[in-house]
Task: structure prediction
Amino acid sequence: MNWRIIELQSNTAAMNMAIDDAVARFVKQGSSKPTIRFYTWKPSAVSIGRFQSLEHEVNVKRCEGLGIDYVRRITGGGAVYHDSGGEITYSVIGPETMFPKGIRESYSCICQWVIKGLSNIGIWAEFAPINDILVEGKKISGNAQTRRNGILLQHGTVLYDLNIKKMFGVLKVSKAKISDKMIKNVEDRVTSVIRHRPVSSRELYNALLKGFTEGKEYEMGVISKEEMEFADELAENTYSSKEWNFSR
Amino acid sequence: MKGFAEMKVPGGKLLAIRVDYSDRIDKIEILGDFFIHPEECLEAIENSLTGIEAASSASEIVEKVDAIVARYDAELIGVNSQAIADTIKSALK
Result:
């Protein structure tokens, strides 16, 4: 199967989620090829999982004061702070039949592409089920997947640089998480590329691009005009809306 | 009355329950960073629990959740029906 690769681009939170959603629908229709996208968030943003409560997870007032976006994803999983210079996000969108049938196995399959990418800059990472990638036992990448109408959509992030102060300024950490004895403080469980290799974010992107495309037929592409028109609608009517973002 | 409880599912994800209730559950939200495929199954679970007696036992709740999960042929990752039932019971105390 021939993949379409979308080069690293920056968007608002609502537009990033809308593009993934729009592409998934066009892939379903057969009018777009299976797609791998790389993107960053501008401005910085918080995304929350499909089943989370925005107000329970995010300091909404502080986000608004700092000009930080917030958005609910269509995928499950947890709240993530996406610093605009501090990480690279990717999405993989294709027919379910291209991936292992089991959800856990398909996480493992796609996460291997990230692991390969990190190895290209000399970082040795490992998959940690269900949906994480670790370096020296610390999380460097989180992933979330959904399957709709026969289409698999997985997005994930690779931490480039970590701004813990900013992150905890906008995220609320639940008591259950703090009291979980397995989870120590965040510096003990999260890491970033820059802590392991002095590479630029562009070098990280190039390494990931190589890791994701190795052994695949692919072409560099763009989001079509039709996809963008649909994404504009979704960004405005769904991913920017209070009805969606505050639905829980 | 309003109730809230949360737990870290052993070996799994975070789970929280927000509930409005009298002698029955009037409204319930199952929240957390878990995964359910297909996602629509969660709303169906919430709907099936709305209106049940607040005094329902954990095993009765497990039975209801399992029935919806089977109907949707759903896969729960990082959460399970027992954890949902136990957290609901905590929220109703």
In short: The mean pLDDT of chain A is 93. The two ends of chain A are 38 Å apart (CA to CA). Chain A touches chain B at residues 49-53, 56, 74-79, 103-104, 130-131, 144-148, 174-177, 179-180, 248 (CB under 8 Å). The domain at 2-245 of chain A is CATH 3.30.930.10 (BirA Bifunctional Protein; domain 2).
